[in-house]
Design a protein that fits this description.
about 80 residues, Arc Repressor Mutant, subunit A, 4 helices, about 55% helix, about 25% strand, elongated
Length: about 80
């Protein structure tokens, strides 16, 4: 989510490289985030190659911000 929050759109392969994960693992996580409407997907062709990109939704951004704030509070109260 942190990659998506700071970028407009991020393609699948870039996410896979940044996260050092497998296609299947990343796809299952993105599918779960998409089902919860935390991210949205865009499919397009660049030349003849398909390209799938993802963007965080406002709901996803808001909930991620709350998550980060909760973590910050947890660490500051120790």
């Amino acid at each position: 989510m942190s990659v998506l929050v700071v970028n407009e759109w991020v393609d699948f392969n870039t996410l896979k490289e940044l996260l050092d994960t497998t296609d299947g693992n990343l796809a299952s996580h993105l599918k779960a985030l998409e089902e919860k409407q935390f991210v949205k997907m865009k499919k397009q062709f660049i030349g003849r190659k398909p390209r799938t990109s993802y963007q965080v939704t406002e709901t996803g951004r808001s909930l991620f911000t709350l998550h980060i704030e909760a973590l910050e509070n947890l660490f500051s109260n120790q």
